[in-house]
Structures are given as C-alpha cells and as structure tokens.
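Q: What residues go here?
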C-alpha cells in the first residue's frame, strides 16, 4: 500500500495568505503615496527656493555693483534725471511695481513686476522675466531711502514667491502650498 501525499495548499493556508496580503497591501500603498506627496512638496519648495534665491541675488548684486542713481517708475520711460529719487537726506520712495537705476555709464536698468513675475528691464535689452511660469510673485515692494546727505542710499526689496502651475494655484491644503518670503536691503556703493 502506498501513502497518498497531496501536493498543494489547504483551504486554511490559502485563506491565511490572502488575509495577510489583504492587510499589508493597503499599508504599503499608504506609505508609497505619503512618500510621493512628500517628494512633490520637496520639489515645489526646491523650485520656489531656487528661483527666489536667483532673483534676490541677481537684483542685490546688480544694484550693489552697478547702480549709481535711483530713479522712480513714473513717466517718462526711459527714465532720466527728472525721475531722481533718494538724492537728498531724509528722503524715501516706495513702489509696488518698479524702480529704475542709472549705472556709471549713464544707462538705465530696473526691476518691475510684470503680471505675476519679476522682470528686468534696461536700455540695452528688452524686458526679461527672472522667474519661470512655475512660480508666481505677490506682495512685491521695492523702495529706497537715504538718512543723511553724505550716506549712501539703500534699496529695500521684498516679495512672496509661490509655486503655481495650473493645478497648484487652486490648492488650498497647507501641505500642497510651497511659498517663501524674501526680503533684503542693499546699500549702493557707486555714488
């Protein structure tokens, strides 16, 4: 007589395996989707920080190294000496749209808000956007002040930069919003 050995799984073993898989798969998927959301948040914050740092460093270095005179954003364009701002002591000027400067050669350049981006404008080049379509600028403010006649005027810049594409602009959940505030004060060297 031969012993009959069955090859295969019993019903109980199959039910236990299916139950274990049924309990672990949702946990694995939940962990995967949390990691995916965190990666999206990191990407958005990285984009905002990279563009904000670029804009603030470019403006800061250009104004510090090149600007000699500060001009208002009022007409006429191109700006000239009739638009002179912060030339006397105890003066200040503020704008939410733009501010222009003259360099050592007498050419003008400036920074302005164009829609939802910050743009650079100059006598030699057309307006160039400094931020991409992935970000939006809000609460832009640029101003100058001078305390004393023999001190250099200073320029203050502040703005919010936010990650914003077609989907991200409509997001209201805090974990999906990537926004940073930038602020700096620049003292003119070349006057």
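A:
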């Amino acid at each position: 007589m031969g012993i009959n050995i069955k090859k295969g799984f019993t019903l109980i073993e199959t039910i236990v395996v299916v139950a274990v898989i049924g309990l672990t798969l949702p946990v694995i998927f939940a962990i995967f989707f949390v990691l995916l959301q965190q990666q999206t948040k990191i990407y958005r914050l990285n984009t905002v920080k990279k563009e904000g740092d670029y804009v603030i460093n470019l403006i800061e270095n250009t104004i510090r190294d090149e600007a000699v005179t500060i001009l208002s954003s009022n007409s006429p364009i191109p700006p000239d000496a009739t638009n002179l701002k912060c030339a006397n002591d105890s003066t200040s000027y503020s704008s939410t749209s733009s501010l222009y400067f003259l360099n050592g050669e007498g050419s003008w350049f400036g920074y302005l808000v164009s829609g939802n981006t910050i743009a650079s404008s100059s006598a030699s080049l057309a307006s160039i956007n400094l931020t991409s379509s992935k970000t939006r600028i809000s609460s832009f403010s640029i101003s100058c002040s001078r305390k004393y006649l023999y001190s250099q005027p200073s320029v203050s810049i502040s703005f919010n930069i936010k990650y914003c594409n077609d989907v991200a602009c409509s997001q209201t959940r805090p974990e999906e919003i990537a926004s940073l505030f930038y602020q700096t004060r620049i003292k003119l060297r070349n006057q």
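A: Context that may help when evaluating the design: The longest strand covers residues 135-146. The chain is about 30% helix and 30% strand.
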